[in-house]
Design a protein that fits this description.
Elements (H helix, E strand, L loop, with lengths): L1 H14 L18 E5 L10 E5 H10 L2 H6 L4 H5 L2 H10 L14 H4 L7
Antiparallel strand pairs: 1-2
Helix pairs in contact: 2-5
Length: 117
């Protein structure tokens, strides 16, 4: 009986996809919460993306403009150096992976330009 359980576990384990971790908050990203973030915004010619939680992605765009992202915050490491991002990450790390909330209104939408990734 124990052998059967090990065999069942082995086949179950192989069938599970590898979890994707958010490079910002380091939590597992559920499929329904996964967003692609352009490290350099598309509006500034960016093509490379990273997978983030939707809430983390929204928070980045609520803190930085596209110009700031393109010029100074085009890597996860640079984004994580910002004090506002650090405060957000410290808060969101304690939330479950599927947690969602709305971010503050972005600096860009305050100027009527809307969010662009």
């Amino acid at each position: 009986m124990a052998r059967k359980n090990r065999d069942e576990f082995a086949s179950w384990d192989e069938a599970q996809p590898e979890p994707v971790f958010c490079p910002l908050c380091e939590r597992v990203i559920p499929d329904e919460q996964m967003d692609a973030h352009h490290l350099v915004p598309k509006s500034k010619g960016g093509k490379q993306t990273v997978a983030l939680h939707r809430i983390c992605h929204d928070q980045i765009h609520s803190i930085f403009t596209d110009a700031q992202l393109a010029k100074k915050f085009s890597t996860i490491e640079a984004i994580l150096e910002d004090a506002a991002v650090q405060k957000f990450v410290a808060w969101v790390k304690g939330k479950p992976p599927g947690f969602s909330d709305s971010a503050k209104e972005s600096q860009q939408s305050n100027r009527g330009r809307g969010r662009k990734a």
